[in-house]
Amino acid sequence: MPDFISKSIASPWPRQDSRSVTRALFTMPDYSVRANAGMRSSRNAQPPNHRTHILESLTPAQRNAHNAKLSSYAHRPIAFLFRYIRLHPVAHLIVLCSVLAAVGCALGSQYAIKHLIDVLATGRHHPGPLWSAFALLVGLIAADNLLWRVGGWVAAHTFVAVTGDLRRDLFQYLIGHSPTYYSEKQPGTLASRITATSNAVYTSENTMAWNVLPPCIAVMGAILMIIVVNPLMAAGLLGCSAVLSVILFKLAGRGSARHHAFAAKAAAVDGELVDVIGNMGLVRAFGMTLREQKRFGATVKAEMDARQQSLLYLEKLRLLHAVITAMLSAGLLGWALWLWDQGRATSGDIVLVSSLGFTILHGTRDLAVALVDVTQHVARLSEAVKTLLEPHGMQDRSDAQPLSAKGGRVAFERVTFAYPHRRAILDHFDLHIEPGQRVGLIGKSGAGKSTVLALLQRFYDTQDGVVKVDGQDVKTITQDSLRHAIALVPQDISLLHRTIYDNIAYGRPDATRDEVLAAARDARCAEFIEAMPEGYDTIVGDRGVKLSGGQRQRIAIARAILKDAPILLLDEATSALDSASEEAIQSALDRLMVGRTVIAIAHRLSTLRNFDRIIVMSNGKVIDDGSPEVLRNRPGLYRDLLAKQHGRHHAAPDGNTPTGERVA
């Protein structure tokens, strides 16, 4: 294959211009985090794609423009499909030309057969015309097969490349959604919709290339050839084909609702599967396996019914077309024989007209059926992109700048915030934290403590007031630069289905192996990691299911230690640790907190005893603020909780430090 063709398949852009940036924008790296040196793993890291660097170099305004462009396809599935076809113009043009030429050769071979029959019908033995017709026929058949193979080879590369581009784009766009979006969707349906979109685009491209385009070309070419042989018969065929196509297309359009219903039910089945499998421990703990089987059976039954309705409608269309085609074929053949009987057509004309007539009639059938299939795929595509490409609820401003100073000063100025469809969680909330201060947040459940951490990371935008980091409104800062300046140890630990090493290195992907191992030692998790057969290459399972709660929490602490950010957020960072483990890790946390701004939520007040300030919250407001010593000697919620936990400590029958009462 020529070099320029290979390049057009391997890369959809020849140079890094504005169009190449558009094509490359939404690609995410598909390689795992690895140390820069010395790391050995069964899964080797892949080199970063150069499109990733283009993405990282875009300004917030450029990213917003491209995200808006993608979002505009949410209700335009056909335009979304052709967006990716346009990314590989040369390769798709080769496929188109190959199909055009191959169908032309197939039609030409029918004319060669006509010519051969006419020569034979003369009864004369002239080897020149006879073997010329034979050579033409053989050459056209050979060219036909060769052209199909060329088109198929190019399509095999290009169509797969299109699905890769599409999945990277959708993944990039999906992870840009706000937490509100994910709280309203089933994670299982989101994952299945990306796969469904990829499959729908791939199948649609194949159907259009091999089942829509060829009959279109064949029908038009056959009509042109019949016009040359017998214009009157061509007019009759054209009229019948047009009427048949219109009838089938109109009936096919009426089945669109059935195809959309099937796509929605199929997505529901995927979501139900992921939901139940992801919560299998809960299902078994409550003895609900039979109930879930019945529930899933009902969901599958609804999907099967919708699928049957869609398929049965297609069969009705095929039956209607078969009946009409049989009638037209019989009429066409009878007409051709009548012309021959009248001496107005040769034997070759009869063969050619009959063959081309069948090509036209069967071509319209194949075209109608293929278009109905495409309608099904487009319905699935529409259902998927409508959900995936919802406009982002929160994104960087066009003029957003990276966080300039990284001292760690934090300020909440008269902040009011409410989650969607709920009452206000924070009401004119004020809080100022100086760089390097260690501040603990306490209060009863629902006081707004976790919301403070979420707003600081700009997982949500406030309805009123301002959140500032180092004097900069977080709404004017790029989200990535803000979150790079913050390390988080959450209560609900999230680990990726990767190795332990990968999960620790996630805090700083460019860290060396020695730095990763040092962070693991500081977090007191090196001992249990090295005791595992695979050590740091141990796969942790989905969300870290293969590890205990305490092990997951220590890996999260190691990840935060490695990140080395100026602001540290601890959301009950030791809640999953036993007393012995908590004492071991507390020294690591103390070292980690030195020189950083720390905001910690804790239900064990003993973990806050060395903090500079304690903020007591209630109903979204600060009701008390002071050092642990001051609050201990002042009537209020802090002293009440401290007394309650101190009482529980003395009441513990085994003499061990109790977990304490959860107040966070």
Automatic annotation (TrEMBL):
Locations listed in the record: Cell membrane
MF term (GO), any: ATP binding
ABC transmembrane type-1 domain ranges (all copies): 93-376
InterPro entries: AAA+_ATPase, ABC1_TM_dom, ABC1_TM_sf, ABC_transporter-like_ATP-bd, ABC_transporter-like_CS, P-loop_NTPase, Type_1_exporter
GO cellular component, one term: plasma membrane
Positions of transmembrane segments: 90-109, 129-148, 208-228, 234-252, 319-340
ABC transporter domain residues: 410-644
Topology in the lipid bilayer: Multi-pass membrane protein
Keyword terms, alphabetized: ATP-binding, Cell inner membrane, Cell membrane, Membrane, Nucleotide-binding, Transmembrane, Transmembrane helix, Transport
Signal peptide start-end: none
Protein name (record): ABC transporter-like protein
Annotated source species: Burkholderia stabilis
Lineage: Bacteria, Pseudomonadati, Pseudomonadota, Betaproteobacteria, Burkholderiales
